[in-house]
Write a structure and sequence with these properties.
The protein is of the alpha+beta class. The protein has helices spanning about 1-20, 30-35, 85-95, 110-120, 130-140, 140-165, 170-185, 250-265, 275-285, and strands at about 25, 45, 50-55, 75, 100-105, 125-130, 190, 195-200, 220-225, 225-230, 230-235, 235-240, 300, 310, 325-330, 330-335, 340, 345, 355-360.
């Protein structure tokens, strides 16, 4: 794996060297993880003009799920209880290596931290590395996809077990906590994001925070959860009906959202524009008169963060590549009545390889539980 991390750092170095910068400082935690493997909380990565360094407030510790930093990197540990900022220290180390310029992640640094870096290394000309690491992270290698696949299997297992239990009378909050416990029981590092369980009039809301509302007969129940496995995060969302045959309006709404989700999934292909994938799903719902009830995007990338590039949205610029994992998650929420969300994690694959690879396989049939 050291070769993988070294290659990632080399690609980033090519980027900032081409822009005329001698060194770079990576501070965003997910980006540090991508370039250096597991790292202590608050660690930063210096891609120096002479040597790359992982600068930490404390020594790396073995983590059962995450491992240790790339062993080809030298680790610079700050003195205990000194209170020094690893980013500020790293800037001083870059200056000490003879660099005349340093690209930083301005989108992650606070103004105060940026000023402290400039004060600590006045000989450095500070620039911006921009979203270069995030762009590198979009296309995943097969090891990364394998972690996502295992996370999806864990999420499917947790959701499947919940559906076999008695649900009527239990609260949204209790069900969400149970799902998160089951994720860990099946081998997840933890939930990929706060689990959403929404019942009755709450159902279909994107990012709904569970409440003490109890599940009732005839409710729509929408669930959105995800597992983190070795740092990689996936997502699944499903909607069900509780305890009885679905009402006509529930069947119609579900079938409509299912059709929109299928259209979005079928649009995933290398070379497809982000906005065209969004349009494929959105058109189905727009045509049925639900334009005002739609979320701002149809899906997004997943990986070391649950919401990363690309964004599948109406104004999104760019085109999909192979080996890009994304969600497709259209939904409709009708105030006072509830709604439907269907959410899958897939990996973009060319048609010759079978088309998009579905990672989350829990049934999308409208079940009455």
């Amino acid at each position: 794996m050291s070769e993988v991390y070294a290659n990632r750092r080399s690609r980033l170095r090519d980027h900032f060297n081409a822009a005329g910068t001698a060194a770079a400082l990576v501070t965003r935690p997910a980006n540090v993880r991508y370039l250096a493997a597991a790292a202590p909380h608050g660690a930063v990565l210096l891609l120096g003009s002479q040597e790359d360094l992982l600068v930490c407030s404390g020594p790396p510790e073995d983590r059962p799920f995450e491992g240790r930093p790339d062993d080809t990197l030298r680790v610079h540990v700050l003195p205990a209880h000194g209170g020094a900022d690893p980013a500020v220290t790293a800037a001083g180390l870059a200056q000490g290596q003879g660099a005349d310029s340093l690209a930083v992640e301005e989108h992650h640094l606070t103004v105060g931290r940026h000023r402290a870096i400039a004060a600590a290394a006045p000989a450095l000309r500070l620039g911006d590395v921009g979203g270069a690491v995030e762009q590198l992270r979009i296309v995943k290698d097969e090891e990364e996809i394998s972690c996502l696949r295992i996370g999806a299997e864990i999420a499917d297992q947790a959701l499947g077990e919940l559906l076999e239990s008695i649900l009527v009378g239990r609260t949204e909050r209790h069900l969400a906590l149970e799902l998160e416990r089951r994720l860990v029981d099946h081998g997840a590092d933890g939930p990929a994001f706060p689990t959403s369980v929404a019942t009755g009039p709450h159902s279909g809301r994107r990012g709904h925070r569970p409440t003490d509302r109890r599940v009732e007969e005839g409710d729509f129940l929408s669930v959105c959860l995800g597992a983190t496995y070795r740092g990689y995060r996936c997502e699944i969302g499903r909607t069900f009906v509780i305890g009885t045959s679905p009402a006509d309006w529930q069947i119609q709404l579900y079938d409509l959202v299912f059709s929109a989700q299928r259209a979005g999934r079928e649009a995933l292909a290398p070379g497809a524009a982000y906005r065209d994938v969004d349009r494929a799903a959105r058109h189905v719902l727009d045509s049925a008169g639900y334009a005002e009830a739609l979320p701002p995007l149809t899906g997004h990338g997943v990986g070391l963060e649950i919401d990363e590039d690309p964004q599948l949205a109406p104004a999104a610029m760019g085109k999909l590549d192979a080996c890009v994992p994304v969600t497709v998650e259209p939904g409709v929420h009708l105030p006072g009545r509830g709604g439907v969300r269907i959410d899958d994690t897939l990996v973009v694959r060319p048609e010759a390889d079978g088309g998009p690879e579905l990672l989350t396989i829990t049934t999308k049939e409208l079940l009455a539980l």
